[in-house]
Amino acid sequence: MIVFNARSTWTIYKREVMRAMRTAMQSILAPVLTTTLYFVVFGAAIGSKMDSGMAGVNYGAFIVPGLLLLTLLSESTSNGSFGIYMPRFTGAIYELLSAPVGVAETLIGFVGAAATKSLILAAIILVTATFFVDYTIAHPFYALGFILLVSASFSLLGFILGIWADSFEKLGIVPVLFIIPLTFLGGTFYSIDLLPEPWRSVAMANPVVYLVNGLRWCFYGSSDFPIGLSLGMTLGFLALCVAIIAWIFRTGWRLRA
Amino acid sequence: MEPILEISGLTKTYAGGFTALLGVDLTINKGEIFALLGPNGAGKTTLIGAVCGQVRPTGGTMRAFGQDMSHGWRSLRARIGLVPQELATDMFETVLHSVNYSRGLFGLAPDPARIEEILRALSLWDKRKAQIRALSGGMKRRVLIAKALAHEPDLLFLDEPTAGVDVELRRDMWAQIAKLRDRGTTIILTTHYIEEAEEMADRVGIIQGGRIRMVEDTRSLMKRLGRTEAHISLATPLATVPEALADYHLTLGNGGQELLYRGGDGSGGGKAKVAQLTKDLVALGIDYTAIDIRESSLEDIFVDLLEGEAA
């Protein structure tokens, strides 16, 4: 009895990665260019005038983890949602639904591909950043693990959005109206400690704060909160997304009539 | 006959309350071509969707290849193929990538020789590097058939396979479908072209209002319900049908200028009756100027049955 179809998983994964390569200008070049502009404006131009830096780190270097997350979160969400939304939109989802694949193969295939694209983006952005700011990575293995975790979590979120959305407008709403604002307000460009009360307490309700904080710890070894809290929040979010997707597949919500 | 698919009491009520299937019972035999006929909204696509995993039935059981489909569904689904009604696929992919993807999705290792054979059989080999969006409608439909065949299914569903396809291509596809049957693939097709069912199907099933109204061998159905119809244009109008012709159950039409015969069966017995009728007309001195004779098609039978149900 087949319990997991590795070849099906690989097929889905490979096709999704190839689709991203087919649209490399949009899925890779565009976000890299946007992030580079942030490095030029905030890192090289404005950052060079901030002698005191931020939280003990040169300002240009300080914003690297936040900007990396800004791209990772929005791109992981977009990639994760687009991959499953398009076959739903065109009707090609019939093939996936009629194939001998379950939730595990589908998730690993689609979400794995979306996360892979995010990791490629992260690598390009980190290399690009070296041209504009001096930064170090204190805990490179933790950083890699954290980037992987965040990419997977938000690709899962994107997958849920791709199943929920019934129009391109809805597909674009969450990244634009939620992910990007929450990332900007989550300490991408500043330390949460700089915020006066009650805004600091309000900021603590923003889940992205913990992600930025976690990645910043991986880079510079210091952060506003314990790294365990950031890791716990991220893992909790991942578990929540997996639970929602398991429910979607069990009930067929928006997938099967 | 060995059953390959056994559907029992299958029901489907959609979230909005619409009941598309009302206790469908249907058995498909191994190696046959089965045509599922029915008007729009009869439940054909819902029935296919239930077997192929797009629709969640609300009741009933399905067994494929002798096993309950609610258990071990992966291995059963791996043996079932589907050509959908809509031209639904990633139009930016090339033909070859798309067909290879379908094979891999069903868990099979790449087999370039087999894929080439499928594409050549469907006259797609020369277009293998073309994006699907660049192909004609008929070619796109062939791509969907190639995708469904890529994992070499034992049971193949064809949902309106020749919709929107020109006559030449349609006949070409019929030949392809016949070849598949010859290889041992069991085929269930839905179609609006009744001649398609008449040409190819071993058995036909008529579904209406979510219920299977009738399942019968195509030839015996034609024989049982088929009729010969002859319109005889008379040289001189008649006021009444002569008593000597009473056994033919003729009717007069067109102001007494046309005699209409309806009778016989789908096996051609009616034609002999018409031949005898013409001799009797001559013997009675009734002259005629033309005879229009035709055998009823499966379409006539289908329409009669549906009208009968409606009445």
From TrEMBL, chain A:
It holds the Pfam family ABC2_membrane. Keywords: Cell membrane, Membrane, Transmembrane, Transmembrane helix, Transport. It is a multi-pass membrane protein. Belongs to the ABC-2 integral membrane protein family. It comes from Novosphingobium pentaromativorans. It is found in: Cell inner membrane; Membrane. The keyword Protein biosynthesis does not apply. Residues 22-252 form the ABC transmembrane type-2 domain. This is Transport permease protein. GO terms for cellular component: ATP-binding cassette (ABC) transporter complex. GO terms for molecular function: ABC-type transporter activity. It comes from the Bacteria. Its main location: membrane. The chain crosses the membrane at residues 28-47, 54-73, 93-112, 119-137, 143-164, 171-192, 225-249.
Automatic annotation (TrEMBL), chain B:
It holds the Pfam family ABC_tran. Gene3D superfamilies: P-loop containing nucleotide triphosphate hydrolases (3.40.50.300). It comes from the Bacteria. Residues 5-234 form the ABC transporter domain. CDD domains: ABC_DR_subfamily_A. One of its GO terms (molecular function) is ATP binding. Keywords: ATP-binding, Nucleotide-binding, Transport. This is ABC transporter ATP-binding protein. It comes from Novosphingobium pentaromativorans.
